[in-house]
Design goal:
Blueprint (H helix, E strand, L loop, with lengths): L1 H5 L2 H27 L6 H43 L3 E3 L2 E3 L1 H18 L3 H16 L1 H9 L10 E10 L3 H14 L6 E6 L4 E10 L4 H12 L4 E10 L2
Antiparallel strand pairs: 1-2, 3-5, 3-6, 4-5
Helix pairs in contact: 2-3, 2-4, 2-5, 3-4, 4-5
């Protein structure tokens, strides 16, 4: 049998050590993800680390360092596709980026373990776990700091819902109110919301938006007889 001819005990034990290290370290990373009920939990993280280690170890056994380098490049690309699968866009929000980055880190742990760099694999795993745990309080603290929107470039949109027959008049009034408040338009679009209803979206780009003044403009628009709804929203561009 080919297995009997090619089997070598010491290289096999080396593979056992590499895969075991990848399994344990991937499990430690995945346990934190599973506890927080993330899309990629314990099993996914372990399999990513284990798979990366197995491929790199196989390349090391067959072609040495040169082969391992080529396989690592493919592992990085493959994990990129896997990570894209856990990223979801919900309106203006994007979810899953941290989970995708964690999978990437798990693959790095596995690649280090497969290349017989167990200490380096443990170090990477430690930093990945610390990044997902110790940095969380700092992130929460930063998020609680009030945002100075005047210091940022933000995109503002004024949205007005009106009757189709009043579209031209309401659009002219919207432009007039915004220009009177010295908020020049970047773009204005119309979206049909039904047979008799349209939505006017006026986009502003400014670093000097006064929220109270914009509220006043929207309030005046909302009082017009032909307007059923008026509001504004903003999103940070930088």
């Amino acid at each position: 049998m080919r297995f009997i001819q090619t089997f070598e005990l010491l290289p096999f034990l080396d593979t056992v050590v590499s895969l075991s290290a990848a399994f344990v370290l991937g499990m430690l990373i995945g346990a934190e993800r599973q506890y927080r009920q993330r899309t990629a939990g314990l099993r996914t993280t372990v399999l990513v680390a284990l798979g990366a280690a197995a491929f790199v170890d196989l390349a090391m056994r067959l072609e040495g360092t040169a082969g391992a380098i080529r396989v690592i490049a493919y592992v990085v690309s493959g994990i990129g596709f896997l990570g894209a699968g856990v990223i979801m866009k919900e309106g203006m929000n994007v979810r899953g980026l941290n989970t995708a980055a964690t999978l990437w880190g798990s693959a790095a742990v596995g690649a280090c373990a497969g290349a017989d760099m167990i200490a380096e694999a443990a170090l990477v795993a430690t930093f990945v776990i610390f990044g997902n745990t110790l940095l969380r309080p700092l992130v929460n603290a930063i998020n609680r700091i009030p945002l100075d929107e005047r210091a940022l470039e933000a995109t503002y949109e004024v949205v007005v819902t009106t009757r189709a027959e009043a579209l031209a008049d309401i659009r002219d009034t919207l432009v007039e109110y915004l220009e009177a408040a010295q908020y020049p338009l970047s773009d204005i679009t119309t979206i049909e919301r039904g047979e008799d209803t349209v939505e006017i979206v006026a986009k502003l780009i400014s670093t000097a938006i006064d929220r109270k003044e914009l509220d006043h403009v929207v309030d005046k628009l909302g009082r017009l007889p032909a307007v059923s709804h008026a509001t504004w929203e903003s999103s940070t561009a930088d």
